[in-house]
Automatic annotation (TrEMBL):
Organism: hydrothermal vent metagenome
InterPro entries: DUF4143, P-loop_NTPase
Domain DUF4143: start-end pairs: 184-286
Signal peptide: none
Name of the protein described by the UniProt record: Putative helix-turn-helix containsing protein
Length: 354
């Protein structure tokens, strides 16, 4: 393994133009988690390239040339001999043993119990980060965001190749059962969906055990390929399912429902800003910390909006809702309501706000 370690040490890291993210690496030791193509490797390489080349060692643990036992035996002495300050283990698995270094960077899809490392959770781009890839900040930017989603790599993929690119990307990252599950989740985006409901559907077309399906469903959730939203005050109620990125919807399903896709977009912005949220019957998102309701109405008209507000007045009154935000594609305005302030805000303004 000494020869392989020398190869890693001497290889110059290459990084295409890097756009700053809302998270960054400083002098501490970190575990960086995120789905495939979320930017973990770029974040690490960008940091390492700011350091003196002789001070760091970057290792992609998925390299099939690595004999883990021999690698673990050789790594400590190699780091000591070459005075390695920063060790980066990309695509890390628990089989790798950490040597004594000043700074340790670990990247993987799954979160591992490594209490001595701080955690950075990296998601695909949010809308504000996406804008760094746009040539101009006008209404076309939001349309591009709807089309491309938050995977930065999609800016370099030709339009006629994007669907198959995403399919291949997911097939390479997920096992067969996980892929079948996420396909169903794409069909039922922004709707109530449980592992049992998925099992009942999949068993009609393939042989599968309930235990295997439940484990695969949980693995997708833990790796953040899917997200589940609880009903407020009802932890055992069926949760709503959202995809890790809206671009996956059209890549895995021919079902067309822009309203549900738009709701998924809003959910991801809430998730990436660490905003506590829940769903309620007739209500897309309830934000208890700000006594606020979010309604996702991309093409809202006031007549239908008034009817919607009437249908949820009991909740508004019972929970002391002070603010109702109606998120749209481009409409803006306010509505008079006896119990709460109602603001109609375009997605781009809302996503870039406080």
């Amino acid at each position: 393994m000494e020869i392989l370690l020398e190869e890693y040490y001497k290889t110059d890291l290459v990084l295409e133009k890097f756009h700053q993210r809302k998270v960054s690496i400083d002098g501490g030791s970190y575990q960086i988690n995120g789905i495939t193509k979320s930017g973990k490797t770029k974040l690490i390489k960008n940091y390492l390239l700011s350091r003196k080349k002789s001070s760091y060692l970057y290792v992609d643990c998925s390299d099939i040339r690595i004999d883990i036992e021999a690698f673990n035996a050789a790594l400590p002495s190699f780091c000591n001999k070459n005075k390695i300050d920063v060790l980066a283990l990309d695509n890390y698995t628990p089989a790798f043993i950490f040597p004594n270094v000043t700074q340790l960077l670990v990247a993987s899809e799954l979160h591992h119990e490594l209490p001595y490392l701080q955690t950075i959770m990296l998601y695909p781009l949010d809308y504000e980060e996406f804008l760094a890839y746009e040539h101009k900040y006008d209404s076309s930017a939001l349309n591009h965001f709807v089309q491309l989603g938050g995977f930065a790599v999609m800016h370099r993929v030709n339009a006629d190749e994007r669907t198959l690119f995403l399919q291949k990307m997911l097939r390479a990252s997920l096992d067969d059962v996980e892929f079948a599950i996420i396909k169903l989740c794409a069909k039922f985006i922004s709707q109530k969906l449980s592992a049992f409901m998925i099992y009942e559907r999949l068993k009609l077309t393939r042989k599968i055990s309930k235990d295997k399906l439940y484990k695969s469903f949980e693995a997708l959730r833990k790796k953040n390929y899917i997200h589940l939203l609880e009903k407020y005050g009802h932890t055992r109620a069926t949760k709503k399912v959202y995809l890790c990125d809206t671009s996956i919807k059209s890549a895995l399903s021919i079902e067309k429902n822009f309203g549900r896709l738009f709701e998924n977009m809003v959910y991801l912005e809430l998730l990436k800003s660490n905003t506590e949220s829940y769903y309620e019957d007739g209500i897309d998102f309830y934000l208890p910390r700000s006594d606020e309701i979010l309604l996702c109405k991309p093409f809202a008209d006031e007549r239908r909006l008034f009817k919607k507000l009437e249908s949820i007045e009991a909740f508004i009154f019972s929970y002391g809702i002070r603010k109702i935000t109606v998120i749209t594609m481009n409409k803006e305005g306010t509505i008079s309501h006896p119990f709460a302030k109602v603001a109609i805000i375009p997605f781009d303004i809302w996503a870039l706000g406080d």
